Amino acid sequence: MAFAFATFAAVFLLLATASCAPAGTQDACADVRKSSLELNRIAKTVSELARNGSKDMSDVSASLLWMEANDMCDPGTLKHEPVTCVRKIFKAIRSYKSVLKTVDRFPCCSGYVSSVKKALHNMETDMGKCVKLSEAINHQEESHTSNGQGIRDYEQLILCHYTMDRLFSFSILAARVFAVGDPAHHTEGSVQKCM
Q: Which residues form the signal peptide (predicted)?
């Protein structure tokens, strides 16, 4: 009798668990993909509008390159066509290096810049070793550097924080893209290193 009850309880729990499984997972994932792209588009627009409040600061902050949802840095695209994403990451590194030269002139920011400058340079160098960039990137490109003239003292701290926050966000994306090595060699469950 106890065995029959235990069997019934086990079957009941199995059926109850199965009935709680999410339905329409594919549709929900497609919806999340659409809504995340929409959020990215709106957040970028709002950020640009908020940033343009000060014309002095917008000259410097506008020179930072944006990583965008359509830069093809998703895992599926990275496996088959990593060049677009890698090119954009490399250009973003150059953009940050340029802006860091400007904010390095601010007394409130020079300590922060000295902390990240070498790591940013190392990443740029390591990318050249990790993936073939010769066909993907024109090494002669120059980034626009503002001299920081006309930026008021109180804006310097804001611009410094803004730049460091953006660099941190960028570093998260870059770390995810390169976490398992050369993006062209990403595979399911792979922990392959740079080639």
A: 1-20
